[in-house]
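Bump. Still looking for FtsQ-type POTRA domain-containing protein structure tokens.
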Amino acid sequence: MKKLEKEKRKLNKKRKYFRIFIRFFIFFSFIFLLIFALKNSNLFKIKNVTIDGNKNVSTATIKKVSGLNKGNKYFVISKKDRLEKIKSIPYINDAKISYSISGNVKVNVTERTPYYQIESNDYLIVDEDFRIIKNSKKKSDNLVNLSGFNVDDPKAGNYILTNKEDEEKRDLLLELKKNEYSLRGNIRDIELLDSIATFTTVGGIKIEFGSYSNTSYKLRMLSLILDDIKKTNKNAIIIQMEKGDNPILITDGEESKSKNNNKNKKDDNNSENKEKSYREKEKN
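Sorry for the wait, here they are.
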């Protein structure tokens, strides 16, 4: 008798679980069919697409890449996938998509700004995040010229200086743009070799920056020296950042003496006083 009751309880338990399973199955089947019906109905058809923020990338390109065309079903492709496809366009930095139940889609994009150029087979135009945004046949006069290293894959959309050994070069470029040094817009050429870096200012002053060590200090000193040159109208030619304990400024009249190492004692004292004044300014 007890055995029969036990089997009956087991059977009732199985029936209970089966009824729960059937209810969940019916519920999720209904949800699936509802979503399927909504996706394939005319309710979510795209009626109009507006693109804002694009100047260098055509509206047609953004629509094609994202699949946002009039008559297409909006929810056939997820919003995340559409955004990733738009941001895969080399010139696009960020994008946002909004959709209204009336079928209107609005896309706001933020484009990348050219900052560097690298001479390769063509000119590689690179933004501040080190992404190649396009290849150009023509050299620009308004961009910072980068040289001294190889670009493994010079294709638009790829990034430069991505290897571990390029980390110091990347850090120097990032440091150079900081507002505290006031060097942004004042550097025209940057050569990044394996162990040393060299700059040229917009005014044609060559800066022998030296190694990638002690970067912050050297940039502060460089900023002070360039500011002093501007105020005193010195005819500066070269600034040597790692020739001795202090930076050395070479002007037009001192160049030949510097090259031949034939400065007299008075010149040495003048240089020493200049170097001390730069150091005092840096401390203040």
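The helical segments are 2-39, 59-66, 79-87, 167-176, 215-232, 255-260, 265-283.

Edit: fixed formatting.
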